[in-house]
Amino acid sequence: MSVVEKIKRIAGDQPIEIAMVLGSGLSLIGDLLSEKIALAYDELEGFPGFDKVSESVSGHGSDLLIGNMAGKRIAILSGREHYYEHGNAAAMRPALEAMKELGAHSIILTNSAGSLEVDMPAGELMLLNDHINYAGMNPLIGEISDKRFVNMVDCYDRGLRQIAHDVAKDLDIKTNEGVYLWYSGPSFETVAEIKMAKILGANAVGMSTAPEVIIARMLELKVLAISSITNMGAGLSDENISHSHTKKMAVLGAAKLEKILPELVGRI
Predict the structure, then answer these.
(1) What is the domain extent for residue 223?
(2) Residue 134: which CATH number?
(3) In the chain, which residues have pLDDT < 50?
(4) Among 47, 91, 158, 251, fewest CB within 10 Å belongs to which?
(5) CA distance linking residue 194 with residue 61, whole number of Å
(6) pTM
(7) CB of 109 within 8 A of CB of 213?
């Protein structure tokens, strides 16, 4: 039995419309689903932790959630596997392929990120309009078909981005927009690397998302990505940057996303 067949056997055959991936400190957004069915990753082949060796990063969930939001059936991946865990940039490919096979036409990716802009402090949201793959790895290395040659122009869907801005405006929530630089982690960036990122044109830095965008575009999924700003980049403030700080500050962005996401899903 394939993993998709297993999911359908438990959650039903009704197709999903939208998939969502939750970043650090954002797993409680899964509580927004009604008629929710939870499937543990370690029971789903190819999902993070199925090998019983991986453990989810603290602040991330470890379940696939399927349910209803704003009248639509959606699937939420309550946590992700990062490149820094096992050096596998394609770690999320099986899960994203399953989302496509389950019927998704769009995917909403969320993450926690460090800001490079003084006027975009912790607690604010940034919609990604592009990214820089500073980590240098690509999740399609090893793909033998011509599908690997993915056009990344407008990989962050303009239409979905506009809907998100409109929803946030209606809810009186400020949204920023900018370029995300993918840094492999798990160590945080140095002061010099933050200076470099600013020179390269990045507005925020983080340790995820870009590989998933590449995979999603290969699968012809429309992509919307939102960063919850949890800190300023190294050297830009007096903050003591740490993962515990990231989790603590992520709740500020999560509170805004809890308001935005149901309305956003309803309008897509």
Answers:
(1) 3-267
(2) 3.40.50.1580
(3) 53
(4) 158
(5) 29
(6) 0.93
(7) yes
